[in-house]
Sequence to fold (365 residues):
Amino acid sequence: MTDVNTSAPHKALLARYKKFSAKIVLFNMLLLAGIFVMVIVSVNAGSARLSVPEILKALVHRGTEEAQVIIWKIRLPRILAAIIAGAGLSAAGCIMQNNLRNPLASPSTLGITSAAAFGANVAIIVLGAGSIQSSTADTVYITNPYIVTLSAFICAIGAGLIVIALAKIKGFRADVIVLAGVSVSSLFGAGITFLQFFSHDQKIASAVFWTFGNLARIAWKEMWLLAAVTAVSIVYFMLKSWDYNAFNVGEDSAAGLGVNVKAVRFGGMLFSSVVTATAVSFLGIISFVGLIGPQITRMLIGSDHRYLIPGSALMGALILLSADTVARTIIAPVILPVGVITSFLGAPLFLYILLREDKYSGGKE
Fold:
């Protein structure tokens, strides 16, 4: 009789676990299917229309030279860049929201994007890496993208290290990290304004042009670096998923469970900074992906980071790929900056999260 009574709760718990596992599998399969569909749509999206046979031939290097250039030099690199960068930014946002105990945290919270923009401005304005090509339609272009990328990356990593160093002095408290990030972001924003105030119109135009997220900037050789950094960061996050779950019940409880809170927070911030700095330095500023990807995923499958981290990565990849496809087709042949589309998606969700948090807190401070 005792065995029957004790086995009933176990069976119920096992049934709930199986149901939850099936939900996670279905969720990931739907995301992968969505990414696959968007890859097919994106390959054929653009001003140059290619038939399905032409695309298939170009993929195996048997089509016309024009089709191969369009597929391998233009469309596939930006498709993969969207998938990789979207996954990295969304996973980084997931970790920041957990480590900072703030649902509105994102890769821009630490001032990394502002620092990258400052580095790009230094390269373009001070080092002369940007200009305007004189023609019937003046075209803004970057004359030396490698210098711009390197300068943006150095400043972005520097900002992340500054915030981490300031937080370490105060014991890596979440509120200290957020305030340090806001201060660093403001400092680099002031630096951008200072540089642009004393610059010429042409260089200012080039600097502003860089800040518009553009997935077409990255080439195959840079793609491997972005992919490696993103993969290593996500693997690290997954290895620490149990520690992040412990954070959900509070830092004191996590410490009581044997989690080294300071070390886990340091590692999370460091890898989030690196993956964000790498993506931003190559592609420019892409807003809100690190915010909306984790938030949508958390609403659908909960806060277990064993599933939330890979789910957020897939969601971020789908969001950025979809946004880039819309940016290339909505007013073709003109290509909008992908950051414009992600901002249109992210701003309403940002307001929704604010209202949701205020509702749960009763509207009280």
In short: Residues 2-43 form the longest helix (42 residues). The mean pLDDT is 82. The two ends are 53 Å apart (CA to CA).
